[in-house]
Write a structure and sequence with these properties.
The structure holds two protein chains of two kinds.
Chain A (H helix, E strand, L loop, with lengths): L2 E4 L3 E3 L5 E8 L7 E7 L5 E8 L4 E4 L8 E5 L4 E6 L8 E13 L2 E9 L3 E5 L2
Parallel strand pairs in A: 2-11
Antiparallel strand pairs in A: 1-3, 3-8, 4-5, 4-9, 5-6, 7-8, 9-10, 9-11
Chain B lengths: L3 E4 L2 E4 L5 E7 L7 E6 L6 E5 L3 E2 L7 E6 L2 E6 L9 E6 L6 E2 L3 E5 L1
Parallel strand pairs in B: 2-11
Antiparallel strand pairs in B: 1-3, 3-8, 4-5, 4-9, 5-6, 7-8, 9-10, 9-11
The chains are: A mainly beta, B mainly beta.
Amino acid sequence: EVQLVQSGAEVKKPGESLKISCKASGYSFTNYWIGWVRQMPGRGLEWMGIYYPGDSDIRYSPSFQGQVTIAADKSINTASLQWSSLKASDSAMYYCARLRGYYDKSGIQSYFDFWGQGTLVTVSS
Amino acid sequence: DIQMTQSPSSLSASVGDRVTITCRAGQTINNCLNWYQQKPGKAPNLLIYAASTLQYGVPSRFSGSGSGTDFTLTITSLQPEDFATYFCEQSFSAPQTFGQGTKVEIK
């Protein structure tokens, strides 16, 4: 059974650093991209970026490039999302999700087929 | 980034109703369109990918159609567990982008 289990809720102050994690099980971690999605309170979903543990390839959304660091440790099947200096506007729910992709006549199809339970990050002075 | 626009933003419906949600892309995306369902306090759940392919385990009352820029999600007979928010997502080009969501409420 595929499972993505995220680390617990965090309360931080502006300027502090933070790393949240997503532990994968039930599939070959190095064979799938894993992504992060932000959901601000009462708002929609935002694709932040994806990471391929097989060769450490990373793709960031331009909106999040330079704002966060996405990484993974394939020895423990765990992906991470990191901030060096949090802002109040980083307060949100963050989801990790496995990206599945394949080729069809339209090109590459990709979708998030399994999701973590979410990590709530609150940044407040 | 490709803009995705859903309509309506919310709707009220009764159990047994047929519900249709529309998603429009800002440029052609072929059939690279996914649909997710999200219930309060839960992570999104994949319903449909590649515009019309039902994810394993999703009830057959859900269906998707469309290609190019215009897509629809249809629930043929709304069930109590279907009251939720629905998001479309384009996977044609990075960064993948989501619609703003359609909240389906009980009438």
